[in-house]
Amino acid sequence: MISNEVLKEDISEILNDDNIPFGELKNSKILVTGATGLIGGILVRTLLIANERHKLNLRLIGCSRNKEKCKNLGTDIEFICDDIRNSDVFSSVIGDVDYIFHCAAITKSSDMLLKPLSVITTEVDGTRNILELARGKNCKSFVYLSSMEVYGKTDLKEVGESDLGFIDLTNPRSSYPESKRFCELLCASYSAEYSLPVKIARLARTFGAGTPNDKNDMRVANQFARKAIAGEDIELHTFGNSIANCCYTSDAIRGLLTVLLKGENGQAYNIANPKASATIKEMAEIVANEVCNGEIKVIINVPEDIQKCGYAPDIGYKLNIEKLIALGWNPKYGLSDMYKRMIADWKTSSQQLP
């Protein structure tokens, strides 16, 4: 099922986590949107293996627009290959749906700048559609994957779930954080008006084993890892002052399962590792010095047209994770190990993840 050895090890760790009551999922139907994305794909794989190992008798449904990537997840999962914005996207779902992870979103920075309407409609229309599905299917628990970008700009050095800052509504790049904010409000409203058991997970920058080795993915973590493998210097196109709040992939999955099964309805939870938080420049230096043992260096080369690159505004805060820790969750991997495990995964994988 999975050829990625490091990811196999990570999933075993998830399944051995005594804080996650996997038995509660027995005889359940679980729907995952964005099932071929990074988080959705690992969630699906984790649930498939949990189904085998714990004899859960799960029925899994994945929703994705990418038919080819759907095929890579095997035959033990049903697929809806459609756009979540379509009003009848879930018309084929028969009977109740016990648990839902809503992971689908447009996360490419350049699309946020160049295709802001697609970003907004995918979030808002898609989330409304799946909330309506959950309302009519006797859903026991629903997790909406939001983002730390909802916090916007703030002078705080640490932010908890109620510390929202400023988002510039005249900037098309704000299509992503502002639509995430509105979808959180949608979730809270469905929870209040219809007693829908919705929880919100605000994910930090997430990477590690299971991250696709895609040369077209220009996210910082992927670029740094590719440079490390190639033995090439890391060139920053910003001054690298923004703090990157990060979380390892399996830590994030454990967090999402914890929120699903132990979180409070209508509440938001930060998922991050404060020990894996650093400025972009510091992160680059960790890769150069700790992952590559000083064999590469960090170069800063800021382009004149930096505004056209679609980078998120600089942030200077770290995420407070006390609410999630109170549910029994704790992150395991720091930045150096995150990169080392992702790079090892890329080097040993015989196939790319969808």
Report on this model:
The protein is of the alpha/beta class. It has a domain at 5-206 and 248-272 and 317-333: Rossmann fold (3-Layer(aba) Sandwich). Helices cover 38% and strands 16% of the residues. It has 11 helices and 14 strands. The protein has helices spanning 5-15, 38-53, 67-71, 109-114, 116-136, 175-194, 220-230, 249-262, 280-291, 322-325, 335-348; strands at 29-33, 59-64, 78-81, 99-102, 141-147, 158-159, 198-203, 205-207, 234-236, 243-248, 268-271, 277-279, 298-300, 318-319. Strands 3-2-1-4-5-7-11 form a 7-stranded parallel sheet, with helices on both faces. A 3-stranded mixed sheet has the order 8-10-12. Strands 6-14 form a two-stranded parallel sheet. Helix 3 (67-71) links the parallel strand 2 (59-64) and strand 3. The longest helix has 21 residues, at 116-136. The two termini are 13 Å apart. The relative contact order is 0.16. The model is unreliable at 350-354 (pLDDT under 50).
Assess the beta-strand content as a share of residues. 15-25%
Rg (C-alpha, Å): 19 Å
| CATH fold title of the domain at 5-206 and 248-272 and 317-333 | Rossmann fold
Number of strands: 14
Largest sheet: 7 strands, parallel
Q: Which percent bin holds the helix content?
A: 25-40%
Biggest sheet strand order reads: 3-2-1-4-5-7-11
Mean pLDDT: 91
Bulk shape: globular
> How far is it from the N-terminal to the C-terminal residue, by CA?
13 Å
Number of helices: 11
